[in-house]
Design goal:
With 138 residues, this protein is an alpha/beta fold. It is built from 7 helices and 4 strands. It has a single domain, classed as 5'-nuclease (Rossmann fold), CATH 3.40.50. 49% of the residues lie in helices and 12% in strands.
Length: 138
């Protein structure tokens, strides 16, 4: 079993039409061999991506609902935000040090804490991961 932190944009690229997928596209075919870790913001971030796709008419409501149903069966472990608070992990400092949004820093912090690869298409997040010597490609 492979453990990794996968950001919402990577997972969204598996479903959205005309989305730049690429290096992580094949993962969907081996989803049963993955344990995906995400920060607690993931669900809202993923839903927001779908809502924006609806607004831009990239997909319809029925398709969005189907995507939510499919992803609910993926091996996703949502790390609670209370774990971050109890372990005194400072997402704010990570965001500031690497010029990231707090949302992106949450993915980076989680990959560092779990010592697992980070999968993202976000250039700034990828560069920060490289600086921290995180594996960013499986």
């Amino acid at each position: 079993m492979v453990h990794a932190v996968i950001d919402a944009s990577v997972m969204a690229s598996w479903f959205l039409p005309n989305e730049d997928s690429g290096k992580y596209e094949d993962l969907i075919n081996s989803i049963d061999k993955l344990k995906i870790h995400v920060p607690s913001i993931f669900e809202h971030e993923f839903m927001n991506i779908l809502l924006n796709a609806l607004k831009r008419r990239r997909l319809d409501n029925a398709t969005a609902q189907e995507i939510l149903e499919i992803i609910s069966h993926y091996p996703i472990i949502i790390e609670s935000s209370t774990a971050v608070l109890m372990e005194k992990i400072d997402v704010f400092s990570i965001a500031k040090a690497h010029d990231l949004t707090a949302y992106d820093a949450a993915y980076l912090e989680l990959a560092v804490r779990l010592n697992v690869p980070l999968m993202t298409y976000d250039k700034s997040l990828s560069e920060a991961a490289k600086k921290l010597k995180l594996k960013i490609v499986l």
